[in-house]
Each structure stands twice: as C-alpha cells, then as structure tokens.
Amino acid sequence: MSTTQANKIEIIKAPTTKINEVDFENLNFGSVFTDHLFECDFKNGEWQNPTIKPYAPFMMDPSSRVFHYGQAIFEGMKAYKDDNNDIWLFRPDENIKRFNSSAVRMAMPEVPEQLFTEGLNQLLKLDEAWIKKGLGNTLYIRPFMIATGFGVVANPSDEYKFMIILSPAKAYYSGEVKVLIAEHFSRAANGGIGAAKTAGNYAGQFYPTSLANKEGFQQVIWTDDATHTKLEEAGTMNVFFRINDTLVTAPTSERILDGVTRKSLIDMAKREGIAIEERSVLVSELIEGIKDGSLKEIFGAGTAAVVSPIKGFAYKEEYFELPKIEDSIALQLKEKLTNMQHKLTEDPFGWTVKI
Amino acid sequence: MSTTQANKIEIIKAPTTKINEVDFENLNFGSVFTDHLFECDFKNGEWQNPTIKPYAPFMMDPSSRVFHYGQAIFEGMKAYKDDNNDIWLFRPDENIKRFNSSAVRMAMPEVPEQLFTEGLNQLLKLDEAWIKKGLGNTLYIRPFMIATGFGVVANPSDEYKFMIILSPAKAYYSGEVKVLIAEHFSRAANGGIGAAKTAGNYAGQFYPTSLANKEGFQQVIWTDDATHTKLEEAGTMNVFFRINDTLVTAPTSERILDGVTRKSLIDMAKREGIAIEERSVLVSELIEGIKDGSLKEIFGAGTAAVVSPIKGFAYKEEYFELPKIEDSIALQLKEKLTNMQHKLTEDPFGWTVKI
Ligand SMILES: Cc1ncc(COP(=O)(O)O)c(C=O)c1O
Ligand SMILES: Cc1ncc(COP(=O)(O)O)c(C=O)c1O
C-alpha cells in the first residue's frame, strides 16, 4: 500500500460561498453541491497531492478509461449536526472498508483509510455551514474513484482520481412506494460485480426500472438471475420483509450490496428482541403471506432512503397490496435509527463518530 | 427521434498535425489518437452542435452521471485504405445498429444513423493521412457516448456526449494465447447487460482476468453464471471451436455480445462449405475433444483481435493443450477476412463500404 500524505492536504478556499443561493427546505436529492471538494490522484503507483479546493469541473481526456471500460466506484454516507454544532458520521469505517472491497473487485487501487478519513473530515469542517441541525437535515457524502488513465485498450488503468463531494439532503421521503418484482431482468450475476458499489451496476437497472415506472412502480426488487424466485434487493436499498413478527432479509452474497443500514437494522432488531432471519426469501412466500395475512410489512433500507416502507408489489402482472398496519416495525426502527444518527438518543453500539 | 443536423457539422481544424511524432511501425493498441475528434451533445431532448475539432481534453463536472452510475457505451470499428487511396469501412451499419441497441438497454438516447455516419465519414476524410495502406495497417475507430448530466441520484441522465476518436492500429498480434475457463467469476447475468457494449461489462472482467494473467493465461473464456458449464465468449472476442471439421460457437443471447466478426465468419464459413453450428458448447465437450483428438482448434473473433488462435486452455487447475495443426480453419478465415477488408480480394457479401 502506498504511503499516505494525509497530513499534507493542500487547501485552496473558494473566494465566495454559494450557500445563500440554496433553499434548504426544497432540495432535490443529489443536485446541489457545497463550496469545496476533496481530490487525490493516483499516479506512478501512489496517491498524490491530496487537495481540498473549490467545487468545479475538471479536465478529462476523451480516452480516459472510465468512459470506455467503467472502472468507477463510489460510496454514500451522511453527516449530521447535533444541537451543540458537533458533526457526526455513522459507521464511516464500514463505508471505507466497502469502498476498498469495491476497489479490489474493480481492479482499482485501495485508498488508505487515513487519507480517506483526513480528506473527508477536513472537507466537512471547511463546509460545515452546509450541515443543518434538526432531524431530517443531513449532508450526503459522495466519495468516488474513477479511472483517468488514457487509452482504449481493455485493461486496468494505471491512473485514478479519488474525490469526495458533498450535497445537502433532506430526509428522502418518497411517498408511497410500490415495487415490481423482477421476472426477466437482473441486476447481478453469480460471480459478478453485484456486491461492489460500482457505476455499471446502476446504469444496468435504469432501463428495467423505467419500464416499471411506466406501469406505476417506483422501484424494482431484483431476484436471482438464474430462477427469478429468490428476492435479493432494490436499486439502492436492501429489502426486509416482516412475516408475522419476524423480519427476514436476504443474506449478503456476491450478488448483493452489503448495506450499512441493513446490518445496523439487524443489530438493532436483535437488541430490541425482534426476531430476525437472514435467509433466502422466495417470491412465493410473499404471495402466500399476502393470501394468509402473515406478510405484514416490506421496507427498503439504505443511507439515502433510510427506511422506506413499501405499500405493495406486482409479480407476473398481478398487484398485491399490503394491509394497513398500526405497529409498524419499519417506522419504529426508522425513528430509532435517525434519532441515534442525529444524536437525539443514546448510541449503545458506538456507531456514531464525532469528527 | 430528434432531427439530425448532420449536414451542418462545424469543422475546427487543428493548427498542426501530430502525425510526424508517431512511429506507425510500433503502435501500442489504442494509445495514439489522430488530430481530430467528432463530438455531438444531447441536450433538451435533441442532438446539438455536431462538431469536428482538435483532439483535446474537455471539462466534466464531478457529479456527471457517467462517473457515478456508469451510463457509457461504445463501439469498435476499423477503417482500411486500399491501393487507390480509397477508404473503406467494414459493415458500419452493424456497428451503428448495435450502438443504438446498447443505448436502449442503458436508457440512453439513440444516435441517428445519418448523424453517426456523417460525423464518422467527415472525420475520417479530415484525418485520412492517419490511415496507412497495406495489409495489417488499420485505423481503429472508437465511437462512444457518456452521460454528462449533473447530480448524484440514481436515475438516467438527461444530457449526453457522443464522440468518435480514432487510433491507428497495427494488426493486433497477441502471440500464443492461452485461456482460462471461468469456474467462479462471470461476465454477465441472465436478464443483465451482457449483450450491450457498455463500459461496466469490461471493468468487471479486469480483476478475474488479472488473476488469470498471474497464472500465465492472457484471457478468460466466460461461462454461464448459473452452472459454469456452457462456454460463452472472451473479454473482447467471441469464441469458435473446431470439432473435427465442424465449427461451433455459442448462440447470441442477452449475455453475449453479438459480434460483427462472429457473424461475418459464420457467413463466410457457410459460403466456403464449412460446417458451422450455433449452439451451446459445454466445457465437458472440450475436454472430451482433447482426449479423443476431435477438438482441433479454438479461436477468438473480434474487430480488434481479428481472428486469434488459442493454443490451450485451463479448467479446474488442469491445462489442456491443442494439437499443432496444418490446415488451420482459423488462419484460412483470417486471411480471407483481412483480404476482403483491405480490398485485396473481392467482397461477395457487399460488406465493405467506401466512404
Ligand atoms: C444496490 C444498493 N443496495 C443497498 C444499498 C444500501 O446500502 P447502505 O445502507 O450502506 O447505504 C445501496 C446504497 O447505498 C445500494 O446502492
Ligand atoms: C465482449 C465482446 N465480445 C465480442 C466482441 C467482438 O465483436 P466484434 O466482432 O463486433 O468486434 C467484442 C469486441 O468488439 C467484445 O467487446
């Protein structure tokens, strides 16, 4: 692993701030960025020139590998501000670890943890005015790495750019979510790249998702590509099913993103004494569960969506709606999680990290 | 479909040429580019400002969708110059059609055929000095499209850039090629994006291919992801097997790129009276074929690699070498194909197109 120069981050400040142009009450997810970004380039086998500088476009060669062969990975994290104006991250070590596993799978260099952490923390401190207090206000953090080496030959780049950009985000409220269960299209192959947070996994979902959108479904729940009988995950969320009083969710595998929200909810449920099973869930179980009333809830879990209740699902042209529920486990877990993240309640797990 | 402005291509000429700096006898594939490129932007629902201009880096926003969600497709074609200095393409309509199917699968806008053709032809005429005469000299053509819209939200971009860049290429001679047959990793899922020429399909192969490289194999031959028993294709080539005097190759599917070289070789073989079957080929057939002597040849077929004989393969830790052969069908087809492409022999199929 290359030496980090984390303690030598060069900081070039923006002459003015854009913050006054931003309506923090009406934010479209991921569309407004803060004044600065963190950047570091990988060249000649090492990470070089870590820099914080004004958010701005940059030059890319038309033959850059990322455009042709898709070496590109990212992460999604959030920063929260508490009532004392302290800034908190939620399990950042998990994101850094996952970023580096994605890097390995995509034949890209790992980013040293110290470099990642220092770059992120210094950037957050500089742009801290963009993190608003109060439940529901967050700063979405997007670390990413792209292949910048030249040449249209299908092998790994020898140059990369690592960047962190920041976008203020309101709680992602998606209204009533109806999902389509995939019967033909797939997100990931056995032995493929489904467990990596890599760009190509997302573009591949856009077309099937647009077909679902046309039929009135906001998301697709992916199934295993060989039989389309096992439920896997949604486009940017892992998925939980509540059968009677037991939560079930697909086990992680090389086809599924190992979500930080997913694993946190599992641990929270265990602590609350809620029964939880990590096992393959069959589409047929859902349909039976609707018929006999045992299927009580379905919800997605992810950093952007937090916990997102699902109202109903379609499978093979039939639509199944979930019963209305009073004692929603989804909403209970969501409240506990967001309160913990915003430091409104105790964090018995040690997941929240002050920067 | 948007209106094309193909007849209004703006041309900005490079003040000088880089051609004298290039050693045309020693070219690394895909690393040297000609003086100009073609560019056209998709904005507000239409293709705008088609321009030929000097090859140069361009500005990209850090939040450009291609970096985060991988909407990126490309094609690979070649131009040839004959003894009369005429410039020829090989089945360009097939590449344009495939480019636009890739676009649909990746939720990107199609490029009108006339715009693609006009942009390419005018670019080739301007940089025609870069196409050298003689068998083995070609100009590799790389049309590509990337999502340039801003924002880190996982849905399709509304802005795109289409570009064509050109790179002089010698015949791709890869020496002796040994391949590893995939037992764990995969290239494509059922219902996935394997049939699209999209960036993410390539990055996903780099890590498994690097593992194969370390064991002395240049390429991986991918198998179906569910059972790893059926042979599919290699990283940038379709694959043919000669069993006794019959050629067999996997049928196209949504997991396999529908190669122009592959389909051309099939038609050429038919015309020559060579038996050819498009059917699933099992790994076990190859092993039996080695043992009983019926497996005579394996070769890859693709625009960059042309026809590339394979010397041997490994499967489950065992290496199988093919017998030496006198009357190679691979080399026979390769010669016929390249002679046709370079206009050294007749083209009975009408595949070669003068620009
Ligand atoms: C494909 C996919 N699954 C699941 C998740 C949820 O993961 P996490 O909880 O770590 O945000 C995400 C998004 O982040 C994702 O992109
Ligand atoms: C995955 C893949 N398969 C096959 C091929 C061969 O296709 P074609 O003969 O059209 O070049 C290519 C390359 O072009 C490819 O990228």
From TrEMBL, chains A, B:
The keyword Amino-acid biosynthesis applies. Pfam families: Aminotran_4. GO terms for molecular function: L-isoleucine-2-oxoglutarate transaminase activity; L-leucine-2-oxoglutarate transaminase activity; L-valine-2-oxoglutarate transaminase activity. Its cofactor is pyridoxal 5'-phosphate. GO terms for biological process: isoleucine biosynthetic process; L-leucine biosynthetic process; L-valine biosynthetic process. Gene3D superfamilies: 3.30.470.10, D-amino Acid Aminotransferase, subunit A, domain 2. It is an enzyme of class 2 (transferase). It comes from the Bacteria. It catalyses: L-leucine + 2-oxoglutarate = 4-methyl-2-oxopentanoate + L-glutamate; L-valine + 2-oxoglutarate = 3-methyl-2-oxobutanoate + L-glutamate; L-isoleucine + 2-oxoglutarate = (S)-3-methyl-2-oxopentanoate + L-glutamate. The keyword Nucleotide-binding does not apply. The modification N6-(pyridoxal phosphate)lysine is found at residue 197. Keywords: Amino-acid biosynthesis, Aminotransferase, Branched-chain amino acid biosynthesis, Pyridoxal phosphate, Transferase. Pathway: Amino-acid biosynthesis; L-valine biosynthesis; L-valine from pyruvate: step 4/4; Amino-acid biosynthesis; L-leucine biosynthesis; L-leucine from 3-methyl-2-oxobutanoate: step 4/4; Amino-acid biosynthesis; L-isoleucine biosynthesis; L-isoleucine from 2-oxobutanoate: step 4/4. Its EC number is 2.6.1.42. Acts on leucine, isoleucine and valine. Belongs to the class-IV pyridoxal-phosphate-dependent aminotransferase family. This is Branched-chain-amino-acid aminotransferase. The lineage of its organism: Bacteria, Pseudomonadati, Bacteroidota, Flavobacteriia, Flavobacteriales.
